[in-house]
Amino acid sequence: MEYLSIVFQEVYKILFLLVPVLVSVAMIVWLDRRVWAFVQKRQGPNVVGPFGLLQSLADALKYIFKEIIIPSSSNKVIFILAPIVTMTLALIAWAVIPFSATQVLADINVGILYLFAVSSLGVYGIIMGGWASNSKYPFLGAIRSAAQMVSYEVSIGVIIINVLLCVGSLNLNDIVIAQQNMWFVIPLFPMFVIFFISALAETNRPPFDLPEAEAELVAGYQTEYSGMMYAMFWLGEYANILLMCAMGAILFLGGWMSPIDVYPFTLVPGAIWLILKILLLFILFALVKAIVPRYRYDQLMRLGWKVFLPLSLIWVVLTASYLFYFNLLPVN
Amino acid sequence: MIAHAIFFYTFSIIAVVSAIMVTASKNTVHSVFFLILDFISISCLFIMIGAEFLGMIMLIVYVGAVAVLFLFVVMMLNVAQQKNQWFAGQATSKHIPVGLIISTLIFFEIIIVIGGWKYKPEIFDINNSLANISVSNTHALGQILYTDYIHVFQISGMILLVAMVGAIVLTFRQRSGLKRQSYIKQISRERTEGVEVLEVQSNKGVKIDD
Fold first, then answer.
1. Architecture of domain B7-84
2. Which residues of B touch chain A, with CB atoms under 8 Å apart?
């Protein structure tokens, strides 16, 4: 019976985390389209519900009632698994995100490594989808996407090392608490910029949305998907984007910490601050989508390997030497 | 403890079954997917015995990078060759003795290591090298790797770097007749040098390339 009660408690906690995440994914899609529209002097979705807030729910309803078509020459098991993998990986990463000093589902010692590992697994959903479709466009899209995500992961990893040098712990809560005096965005600003751009590439967002590139690849790895399976890819993608924003907020913007450590601000619960920071980063994502034209593929690879990787490596050396020279290394 | 045992047996059964499926499955891409499943369940086992750092590194390095490259190579292979005919053809039978020898060797090595560890634990000096339990194992690993074994650690890093550079040098070939794009040239192009307004005479036309 004790096991059962523990299991029920955990399930309750997980639902309490996942349901808000899923709802906010739906809302964030609306926000994305809205920001995109405003930049281009359009209205965007504004019909369903107040300000069009329920647009995503209407879309989801439409997807549920559409027929799921499985191509006859596809590899059926993997074809069905691919969107499930994408969705699951996008959701399990939220387990380690701290919403305040105590509100975290799993406060593990290697939290940041877990986040990094899960985001690096994200490429499998796309490869599986692209290969299993057994069609040219999805396959090309999947291969592009795999190369792109693997290359930008490298620079994200090196950027994480920069932050870890200043923190001295892999625990996400420790990373947040280490920013009590100064957010890492100030001393590590160039790394924040590179992280932001790499996050765009890692989540296949414009201007790096070459895997989907509707003009040349007819939506890439998603071409053969329809109905709810397509919607799952799409939800997983946005959940991943939110996750990347959360990662940026935790690594550079002080996570659940309030911006100023004075009385009225500290009353606001940490979760609200984290959500506000995630929203800020997401609006930046949406603005970039509206403003910047798509990269050419060779430019993308060049940016990842020849610009970001050396820059972030040099910055690791700089940070390490600075910390060592001024005896600031976090030793415990 | 029961929950622990349930998780342990689930992960290890998945690991063993998927390891068998890697060799047994007909489709090579399926083999790689089973290999990935194997890596994931083994990293779960690592996490269960408390080696969380090792488990995560396993996920990042093997599943996140190495297996992706495997998949790349396997997917690029000719589709006609994709059926795994390793056990079907007559020509492959001469590989079987070699495989048998290697696997027996590995099997005996494992027996020796595990047996020695079980019955003569003082030989391996495991208890002394175990760091303070209160330190998390990421710290413990760092404290050993960057103090006592710093030179070995650095040398192994250098060897990997040399291997990487070597692989690039070996496969690199200078192709002639390739049009290279210079980004600086492309960006710094002005309108005045790119656009030219011509007086076109009727019935003469314009010759564009010179």
1. Up-down Bundle (1.20)
2. 2-3, 29, 33, 36, 52-53, 56-57, 59-60, 63-65, 68, 71-72, 75, 136-139, 181, 183
Contact A116, A157 (CB under 8 A): yes
pLDDT in tens, A25-81: 988 988 988 888 989 888 888 888 788 888 888 888 888 888 888 888 888 888 888
Q: Mind listing the pLDDT tens digit for each residue in B88-110?
A: 555 566 778 888 999 999 999 98
Q: How many Å apart are CA A171 and CA A163, to the nearest integer?
A: 12
DSSP of A181-201 = SS-TTTTTHHHHHHHHHHHHH
Of A114, A124, A332, the CB nearest to B56: A114
ipTM: 0.82
Cα B156–B157–B161 angle (5° rounding)? Answer: 115
Do the Cβ atoms of A198 and A308 come closer than 8 Å?
yes
> What CA–CA distance (Å, rounded) separates A16 from A54?
21
At residue A110, φ and ψ (nearest 5 deg) are: -110, 40
Residue A208's Cβ-side half-sphere holds a number of Cα atoms within 13 Å equal to: 26
CB contact under 8 A, B29 and A121: no
Q: Which of A225, A195, A193 lies closest to A212 in space, CA to CA? A: A225
The token duo for B116 is 């020695």
Domain ranges for chain B, please list them: 7-84
Predicted TM-score (pTM) of this structure:
0.84
Q: pLDDT grade, residue A141 (50/70/90)? A: confident
What per-residue confidence (pLDDT) applies to A213?
67
Q: What is the DSSP letter of B76?
A: H
CA geometry: angle B178, B181, B187, nearest 5 deg: 165
List residues of A whose CB lies inside 8 A of any B CB.
Answer: 3, 75, 78, 108-110, 113-114, 116-117, 120-121, 123-124, 127-128, 131, 139, 143, 146, 150, 153, 157, 170, 298-299, 302, 332
Q: Which residues pair with A155 in a beta bridge?
A: none
**What number of helices (H) and strands (E) belong to chain B?**
11, 0
Helices A123-132 and A76-92: crossing angle, nearest 10°? 160
Does residue B189 sit in helix, strand or coil?
coil
Tokens of A67: 């027929």
Residues A255, A172: contact at Cβ < 8 Å?
Answer: yes
State the smallest CA–CA distance between residue B104 and chain A in angstroms: 34
Q: Which of A64, A71, A80, A67 is nearest to A134 (CA)?
A: A71
Are A70 and A133 in contact by the 8 Å Cβ rule? The answer is no
How many Cα atoms sit within 13 Å of A86 on the Cβ side? 28
Are B122 and B128 in contact by the 8 Å Cβ rule? The answer is no
Instruction: Please tell me the distance from the alpha carbon of residue A122 to that of residue A115, in angstroms, as a whole number.
Output: 11
Measure the N-to-C terminal CA separation of chain A; round to a whole number of Å.
41
* Least confident window among A147-156, B55-64, B164-173, B179-188: B179-188
